[in-house]
Amino acid sequence: MPPSFLLTKLQLPALRPGLVPRPRLLKQLNTGLDGKLTLVSASTGFGKTTLASEWLRQCGRPFAWLALDELDNDPLRFLTYLVRTIQTVQPGFGADLLETLGAANPQDFDPVPIHFLEMLAAEIAAVSTPFLLALDDYHVIVRPVIQAVPQFLLNHQPENIHLVLVSRTDPPWPLGRMRACSEINEIRTADLRFTPREAAEFLNNCMRLGLTEQAISVLESRTEGWIAGLQLAALSMQGQPNPQVIITSLAGSHRFIADYLIQEVLEKQIPDVQDFLLKTSVLDQMNAALCDEVTCRSNSQATLLQLEQSNLFLLPLDQERNWYRYHHLFSDLLRIKLGQVHPGLTTELQRRAAVWHSSQGRRLESLHYALEAGDIQMAERLVAGNIFLLFNHDEVGAAVRKLEAIPVSMVIDKPWLGIARAYLLGNNQFQKSYQILETVAANVENMPESAEKGRLRGHLEAAWADIYGLQGDVANTVYHAQQAEIWLPPEEVEMRAANLAQWGDILSKDGYNPDAMPILEHALELALQADRPHSVVMVSAALAMGHLSAGRLREAHQVCQQALTVTDDYQRRAGQEILAVAMNYAILARIYIEWDEMEKSSQLGFKGLALSERLGQIGTEVMCRNYLGHTLMFQADPTQAMQVYRRAQELAANISPWVEQMVVSLIVDGLLDREPLDETAVREHLRVYDEGQTEYPLMLKARLLLKTGQPAAALEALNKVLAGMSESVARLAVRVHVFRALALQAIGDEASAMAALTQALTLSEPENRMMTFLREGRAMEKLLRLAERQAICPNFTRRLLAAFAQHVNPVEKPMTIALPEPFSKRELEVLRLLATDLDAPEIAEKLVVSTNTVRTHVKSLYRKLNAHNRYAAIARARELKLL
Amino acid sequence: MLSSFNQEPICYQIRVRGQLDPRWSDWFDEFAITNQAGDSLLTGAVPDQAALHGVLARIRDLGLTLVSIQPAGKNETQSSS
Q1: How close is the nearest chain B Cα to the Cα of A329, in Å?
Q2: What is the CATH number for A536?
């Protein structure tokens, strides 16, 4: 596989041997380090990137490097890469920023919100050492909303960052003003041109041409020091017995030098290499196998090495020299030549590239080349029946954009592309997905009856089931999943497996449902039959959830572990992750909480969170956050726990009220774990419930009664819950018995309390449900001591008491989730002005008070908001919806 | 509603340094290429400003030196192609 897209973007290009040393430019660059900005601006082929990377290597400061491309004109993507780039200087930088970006809707970041930029600036200011942030190929950024980001950093510049822009065009900022203030150091075309001396060094030392001074002077003046031109000239002369011929003809010619020279360079190569260069020019990135396929040959590996060694504008992308690309100018020129030499061949070559990528399972790249070739039919075929594979890619967003780039008129009769679009949108744009599916369905219904029509119907139904499933709509999910199972051809085992998993999953939504298990088990059988690790992993998660809701922790654990093994195997074999494994991490995080292995749980929770963010699977992300929130709450860090929970709630609200209700339940449950109890916070959250209650909220209300000294009322509520339960709902029953035991003990009925406790312990011991007991705190510890004396479930009881001993007196961190002290009207006014660009004297002027008064207000605002600086205060205030 | 955005294509004449082979024309959005005194004239119609900037970006990316750019009458396009 090619090096991860992400990593090649963040890697400083490898230094090639035989570079012309440029001490004068390095010196010139060093003088600008105290300013705000270094701008290396010149058109293509002047060695900008080479110079910048050489400078960064030896400038003595840490640096972060980001190579931009056209796709970075998406604010979310740009900012994500920006933060990740800075992480190469400061590991862990901007985790919260990434979190915000991961959860954001594209429209919220178009334009980028000021408070986000402020947070970014504040976090950069907090980086421990001064560093350089280099943005290469900045000219690809054309959208003003993104131009605004570095501009903001320049205007509000944290002092420890120096910006380096490498670009073919000047950024659209007031550079004149910056020049006047000596804030900018520029290296421009005139500086970058090779001087006669550098040209001589290059031609005679690096390229070993042995040219006379006069010849060098002709070349230098004819190319005007344009390095790419000189390199082309040198290549055309290498091995030439009489280079003077070329020099003379160059001097007399008016032809565009690159055009002329590329011809010379090509003609100099043996026909085989010429053919190779032209045909591979259509590839953005290439390895030997891909080149073999596209050029119909078998010696590409040797040719690539030979090209790299002869300086033929071929850049290795990884240390192993598996993947390469051509210098952009070179491939542009080659592509033009290709069009001239073999008219019409370009699309055929792109199509071959598409076919090769498809055979490697690299469907997204395949789709890219198919679309480049304008082959919508092929794109349609690639997607047909393979929709699920598009999911297991790091860059789902890019896939959506590629699909969206196809004109609607061209896809109106391409149902597969339509369904794929709906799926890719499905995660957060339900309405749009509905519309697309409606249109596709109407078109499909108009098709004459055929096997293909039936297949399409099956996939459409599965897509509906998926979208309804994400929203927790049981009836519609089940209906469409059933329809899908009817229509899908039996041999489409992978799709059927996914569909059945969805079906079984939704059945277990409100807890244990015996009907779900056979469906889920059948789903796993099909996935194994399909022999697709991605499916196995996805379906395993659904099955594990089924076990979980049936209270079978150990079985759930085993299924998830198997999924992890499948993932590891695949990663070793294919070098790629299976992103769908995120859900398995989430489930394991949940299980380890119950087993009182909090460290393991948060590790897996964070892993799952990172993956699900990348995949854009908000359902899984919500789960990971729920469990992380729980571990944080339990580890006495309620403030951070609430942050994690709050984002989960926001995400959940986008999915459906049902999911949001589930998150709120978990938050309440977590809050109830805490002592002393923050009753206001609990009631605040409980208010969100509607009264058509399921068992969980009812239990939580009982738990609140219990915790607020109303055991009789709690008992009454619990008995009601119990009466409404079927025998099979064992999962919830454990906690009902736990609560009943506590309530009974509190009203002095010890015998009944022990009976209830016995029931709870007996149910819990086989699955090792420790947290169910541990989270009840001291009251439960007391109760367990009684149980110990009566030898009730002695082993398990002893284990629980030992765990209690370990958990005593966790260091309580202060709780700041409830609204802090009330704010005065003036403070709120100051707060609002703090969120602007005004400084303290300006705010004072606006409010007609003294600057000191403003400072006092600010100080008290910081205290009430538990913030240490302006950015944090604003961020916190926004969180509390004060702004 | 779309009709209000439908502009008449505008003809431009772009002069770049160096003689370009006319066969490059399909790379410049079908601009016709003629040579004149060591320079190349790219003459053609673009639907809008965005398309024009696309052509200019291509000139930049090829390392060509831009000499001048001016609107041209329709007749000129026809006569040069």
Answers
A1: 6
A2: 1.25.40.10
Same-domain check for residues A510 and A478:
yes
In a domain, A522, yes or no: yes
Tell whether A158 and A221 lie within a shared domain: no
Residues A123, A114: Cα–Cα separation, whole Å: 14
What does DSSP say about strands A131-136 and A63-67: parallel, antiparallel, or unpaired?
Answer: parallel
Do the Cβ atoms of B64 and A256 come within 8 Å? yes
* Two tokens, residue A413: 């009769």
Asked whether the predicted pLDDT for residue A539 surpasses 60, the reply is yes
Report DSSP letters for A227-286, one per residue.
HHHHHHHHHHHTT-S-HHHHHHHHHH--B-HHHHHHHHHHHHS-HHHHHHHHHHTT-SSB
Is the same domain home to A702 and A836?
A: no
Specify whether the CB–CB gap between A821 and A860 falls below 8 A: no
Q: Quick one: CA dihedral A829, A830, A836, A838, positive or negative?
A: positive
* Euclidean distance between CA atoms A754 and A198, whole angstroms: 90
ipTM beyond cut 0.90: no
Lowest mean per-residue pLDDT among A111-125, A494-508, A566-580, A617-631: A566-580
CB contact under 8 A, B21 and A226: no
Q: Is residue A322 part of a domain?
A: no
Q: For residue A229, which residues of chain B lie inside 8 Å, CB to CB?
A: 63
Name the residue among A860, A786, A779 with its Cα closest to residue A823: A860
Q: Look up residue A142 and give its DSSP letter.
A: -
Q: How confident is the model at residue A818 (pLDDT cuts 50, 70, 90)?
A: very low
Pairing mode of beta strands A161-167, A37-41: parallel
* Under 8 Å between Cβ of A213 and A200: yes
**How far, rounded to the nearest angstrom, does the alpha carbon of residue A595 sit from its chain's CA centroid?**
30
Nearest of B18, B34, B37, B60 to residue A257 by alpha carbon: B18
Residue B61, chain A, CB below 8 Å: the answer is yes
Q: Is A572 exposed, middle or buried (0-12, 13-18, 19+ CB in 10 A)?
A: exposed
Q: Is residue A20 located within the same domain as residue A141?
A: yes
Strands B66-71 and B10-17: antiparallel
How many CB atoms neighbour CB A319 within 10 A?
Answer: 9
Q: Which residue in this structure is represented by tokens 């040797």?
A: A302
Of A252, A268, A284, the last residue of a domain is A268
Same-domain status, A209 and A174: no
**What part of A 202-241 touches B (C-beta under 8 Å)?**
226, 228-229
Q: What is the pLDDT of residue A852?
A: 76
Q: Residue A617 sits in which domain range?
A: 578-689
Do A704 and A673 share a structural domain? no
A100-120 pLDDT, tens digit each: 887 777 777 888 998 899 999
**Coil, strand or helix: which one is A697?**
helix
Regarding whether A45 and A18 lie in a shared domain, the answer is: yes
Average pLDDT along chain A: 84
CATH number where A712 lies? 1.25.40
Same domain, A69 and A173: yes
Chain B: residue whose CA lies nearest to A250:
B18
A255 shares contact with chain B (CB less than 8 Å): yes
Q: Is residue A573 part of a domain?
A: no
| CATH number reported for the structural domain that contains residue A35 in this entry | 3.40.50.300
Domain boundary pick from A166, A192, A218: A192
User: In chain A, which among 135-174 make CB contacts under 8 A with chain B?
Assistant: 139, 168-169
Structural domains counted in chain A = 6
Q: Confirm or reject contact between B64 and chain A (CB < 8 A).
A: yes
The answer to whether residue A423 is domain-embedded is no
Residues of B whose CB is below 8 A from A226? 63
DSSP string, A849-872: S-HHHHHHHHHHHHHHHT-SSHHH
CB atoms within 10 A of CB A479: 16
Q: Tokens standing for A842?
A: 């300006």
Q: How far is CA A640 from CA A373, A556, A632, in A?
A: 50, 29, 7
